[in-house]
Amino acid sequence: MTGTPPSFAGTPKAAPADHDVLTEMLRAVRLNGSVFLNACFSEPFGILSPKRYDEAAALAHLRHISIFHLIAEGTCTVELKSGERRTVSAGEILLLPFADSHRLSNGHAPETAFAPDLVRPGPLKGMWGIDYGGGGQKTRMVCGFIESSEFLFAPVFHTLPRILVDRTGDGEVSALLTSTVRQILQFTDKAAAGSELMLGRLMELLFVEVLRRYAAQLPHGSKGLFAALSDPVVSRALQFVHADPARRWTVEDLARESGCSRTVLAERFNAVMGQAPIEYVTSWRMQIASDRIRNTDESLAAIAADVGYESEAAFNRAFKRVTGITPGRWRTEPKRHPLSEI
Question: Which end of the chain has the lower number of beta carbons within 10 A, N or C?
Answer without folding.
Answer: N
